[in-house]
Task: structure prediction
Amino acid sequence: MTPAATTFQMPRRVAQSRSTTESPFVRRLLIGVALIFLSLFLVVPLVFVFAQAFAKGVGFYFHTLGDPNAWSAIKLTLLAAGISVPLNCVFGIAAAWAIAKFDFRGKNILLTLIDLPFSVSPVISGLIYVLVFGAQGWLGHYRDAEQPWFLWLQNWLNEENFKIIFAVPGIVLATIFVTFPFVARELIPLMQAQGRSEEEAARVLGASGWQTFWRVTLPNIKWGLLYGVILCNARAMGEFGAVSVVSGHIRGQTNTIPLHIEALYDDLNIAGAFAMASLLAFLALVTLGLKTWVEYQDARQNTAEEKISL
Amino acid sequence: MISVATKQIRTKRIRVLPGFRLTLGFTLFYLGLIVLIPLAAVFWKTSELTWSEFWHVITMPQALASYRLTFGASFLAALVNAVFGLIVAWVLVRYNFFGKKIVDALVDLPFALPTAVAGITLAILYSHNGWIGQLLEPLGIKVANTRLGVFVALTFIGLPFIVRTVQPVLEDLDPELEEAAASLGANRWQIFWRVIFPMISPALLTGFALAFARALGEYGSVIFIAGNAKITPMLIMDELDQFNYAKGTALAVVMLVVSFVLLLTINVLQWWTNRYNTTSLA
Result:
């Protein structure tokens, strides 16, 4: 190799690497900018929650959490999530089955309508139930109606003084609304991508509809389903705006954890508010951890299936 | 003859799997009961107002001020997120560094952290004796109880949208395109602007629209830090607290119409993004 050839090749290699990746300086600069931005907006607030929660010591922390009103808020939050997550799960599976396994007209409209609750402001999500079930709303009009459709129903409602708004049923309904699309929007694209051939094969081999679902469909969608459930649960336990409109803020009765945080904050009990908030911040960390684990499991299952099909 | 045969196969194919009527029926029933009928109540309640009353409510000075603040802060927050979100997505896809997986998982924190928690945290953090607030105070910058506070809260909640829409597109980019551009003599900057950016711009726009749409309706993270700088959802809440349901509902109609238009725009953008992806693959 002549010296001329080496001097010719060297700059060419350098030029090419510069064009397909950045110089170490630019690289470090970009990583630095990204990390500073993320620490400022994510890490500092997260650390701050726990720092404030324990600012008045561990004793105060557990005193706040042991308060009867705090307990009732925790129980109400678990109840609302415990009802809304399973219901939206059943809905998500049913919707995904109908949309992914069959052809019908208006599918795109249905998909858009399912996503609708995501684009509605939380305050409006609460408001709509006040308009339906509140004293000024449809239910209120019905209770005062002179000639109602079902007299026994009107009598029963008035005798029992059945309340939805400013009571627990309203909180559950608002939670169902804001978490409505989570499971469905995870499962629909997943089941559409998987197609229907496996289920059809199971049916042809003599499996019943339920057997097909339990033995073929469910194992295929389990990670996507779990992913949707995790996100749905996080939102259900943390919802604030919608629940705030329908709750009525009765301490010890209709306050969820986020509403109890607001009440403590308004009392200027900042350490108490952050103690409650730390519960939800911890839930958020668990959610992120589980989500990452599910993504990893799903990727592993996919690569394993690719190997088998090869 | 052939067409009859395929037709028979198609109808048979539909009948192989059970449960179509059950699942679609339940889907429509549940959708109607939980979403459509209650949403229709908004328009029913607004019809109690005459057109001029409605117009008067939605154009009152506080309402106009709240639209300016809501749209302005949401737009700026989405813009800031577009710039930094693109950098974060780029760094996560292209480079390796210590703790990358944790950083990647942490990006979703604003999705997972309840808005009330984010709200009180940012309000205290940026107050005059909070960790960040006391650093900004000597510079004459006040965040808590100002419009700047609204912007900070909306930036926080919109952060994951752009990262999560741009990231998969960046991952799927064919390195051969960049190599081809380089072999034709383009420098790194030219390759970014002329090759990479046009391919990720639909995703970037989609992410921007998603962050903007989310910010418009946001309530929980904003109320604690906003003080008297009222965004439209706070104005609706004030009317509801005073039992002015018709007024609050009129403002809600404005917000709903804007959200529906945005939802439509996002759907078109997503279709455009996917089209771009499939053409680049082909």
Chain B has one domain: 51-281. Chain B has a mean pLDDT of 89.
